Amino acid sequence: MRKLDHYVGMSVLLAVCLVAFVLLGLDFAITFIEEVKKINDQYTAGTLIQVLGLRIPGKLAEYLPVSSLIGTLVGLGALASTSEITVMRAAGIPLWRLGFAACKPVLLLAVLGLLVAEFVSPIAEQKANLVDKLQVGVNQDFAITGGSWLKTNGDYIYIDAADREGNLYNITIYDREGDQLRAIHAAKRATQVSEDTWQLQNIQTSTFTDTKVEVSNTKSQEWTSSLKADFLYLSTQEPDSLSLTQLYQYSAFLKEQGLNAGNYELAFWSKVFRPLSSLALVIVAISTVFGPLRSSTMGGRIFSGVLIGLAFQNSLYITGRFSLVSSLPPLLGILIPILICFMIGLYLLKRRH
């Protein structure tokens, strides 16, 4: 029985890996074509390839559930097309045993994907975002490249990018007095030197008077602020690019500040339940291979897998976003489609018995 499990498991594992490789290749090619318009003297083709390469680990973790679905359809479908599944069933191997053998490699990959999403993809994704923002901002004086707006000590702050060491890049401070804007300080870089003190570098200051605007440049200047480097860094990142630990910590911080943490909670539960999503889709794949798709061609199985995967991903997206605009907790917004997928798969498997 162990040899049988190994044989079925390897068929599914190789198929899932092949599908993941194809999906990553297609994503890389399509994204490169979409982003090629960014290329200029500063943002070179090499920079674009570096950014897309750094985002591959995150894409791999994201595509694992759908890859598991299509890979299971392909792997078990190949065994069914050569009548090997029929022989196994005729030899008395129960359906649940074949399903268990197919689920084992998928669960292994799902756990691996969770580890990648925690320890590998956040570092790579955040480095990619930093490279992308700093390169794009070179020739676009007024471009907002997806940074973060904050308010501290009555002033509004815009931070274009930040790194893991707590350095801020392209920071703009709007110095106010009451309802009046007194000055705008635009610094290329800021580094925290003590708990409440930052060192600004390469500052251009525009001071507003009743009759004119005075512009001055300074190499270095101290800035007093209660902002914390760790949370400033997290605030400049997209929720999907953060690790589970970072998402949990920043969600707790936002709740303490009385702010909405819905997007970060949604990203947290989406990553936590990815292994469960993979397992639910594999159960659906098993039920269809042994049921309605047992006599289908390979192309038909792949097409069916793509449709099921798209329907599942869209359901996750819709219920997740619905939870952000309603009283539904993000946990349930992610869990409901997964449970429905489980119930559909188990119902189809039960009918096969």
Automatic annotation (TrEMBL):
Pfam families membership: LptF_LptG
InterPro entries: LptG (IPR030923), LptG/LptF_permease (IPR005495)
GO biological process, one term: transmembrane transport
Domain of life per record: Bacteria
Principal place of residence: membrane
Membrane topology label: Multi-pass membrane protein
Cell location: Cell membrane
Keywords in alphabetical order: Cell membrane, Membrane, Transmembrane, Transmembrane helix
TM ranges: 12-33, 63-83, 95-117, 272-290, 302-319, 331-349
GO CC term (a single one): ATP-binding cassette (ABC) transporter complex
Quaternary data: Component of the lipopolysaccharide transport and assembly complex. The LptBFG transporter is composed of two ATP-binding proteins (LptB) and two transmembrane proteins (LptF and LptG).
Protein family membership: Belongs to the LptF/LptG family.
Function: Part of the ABC transporter complex LptBFG involved in the translocation of lipopolysaccharide (LPS) from the inner membrane to the outer membrane.
Name of protein: Lipopolysaccharide export system permease protein LptG
Annotated organism of origin: Marinomonas gallaica
